[in-house]
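I'll show an entry:

:::
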Amino acid sequence: MKKSFIYLMTALAGCVSVFLLSSCDDDSSNGSSAFDLSAIVDDTKYSENATNWGSYMVAVAQRLNADATTLYNDWNTSYNGGNAYKDLFTNPALGEFTSARAAAEQIIDGCIDIANEVGTAKIGDPRSLYNAGKYEEAVYAVESWYSYHSRDDYKNNINSIRNAYFGSLDGSRSATSLSAFVSAAGTTGQELDTKVQSAISSAISAIDAIPQPFRNNIGADEVVTAMEACAALNNVLTNELKPFVTNASNISETNLQTVINDYTDKVVLPTYLSLKNENETLLNLAQQFKSFPSDAAFEALAAQWIKARKYWESSEAFLFGPVADKGLDPNMDSWPLDKDQIMQILSSGDFSGLDWTGEYNEESDDIAAAQGIRGFHTLEFLIFKNGEARRITD
């Protein structure tokens, strides 16, 4: 999730148009410990904006498909006209990472980043707003609230850490994984591996215990437990696992090279290939909807969005390389949305604002503006309404 403070403030300033509740006044909802978050809903109607709806879905799905294809090809075939990024990552002689140990540290850094983001931003930001009595803003800060898919997103984020550490996509531990080689490094390594595995499992379980949907239960005690579990995972990754891998003399460069190779071949490349394939199917369904709008077509899109979304969220432990350098993360996953601009696009049918050119600069307001009206979450808004697939006659 690429979160923009500017666009969060823009979105919150426009929350009157998003919610059935009538006010964004902080004081209007302070002091209520039992505020009914389910009363805050999206009241946008397809039937009132149908003319360009299908075309907008196609425009967004085309860009998602293009970004996912670029990401896979950069890793697997050629990056910026040179070697595939998989070679830059795994081959110290090419200079991107000067040793297998440095590449292993990057794997851990990716896991640290997403463990922190899930706990402090994805879950923590809505909770902070809720605690401040800013209930409408709290709901609007919840990523994937239109689909009620937030909790699954967060679990898939932690699963991306599990996959990176275990060297597999199914929860099994590869014999050539980082986990296996830490465990093989003496008693201290075995104890650390057990601790990391436990922290991963605890974070997943704690997130799963949040009452569903998260957007209606931001104030639940289970939310704090989940934040604490993510913080504990972040702590063991940052203060124990990374220093151990950096300093352990009994983990050889040769063994770490095997870890790096298998991580790339068994985790990164298959995840990105599935992301590419599922987004291609998503585009096909959007094109079918555009030609023949129907409730069934909305339902098919909703199911496929969830399938494609899984592979994106399961990749967030490795948001380095092309996905970062080319701005593909915020292209595909910016949150929150610029809903006012989305509504203008639905009215005008002008999709030119979805694109940006030149080298990626994360400080560029113009690029951020384009990214706030495309990607998974724009498509989510166009497909889902209050946790269900939209209806033609809503």
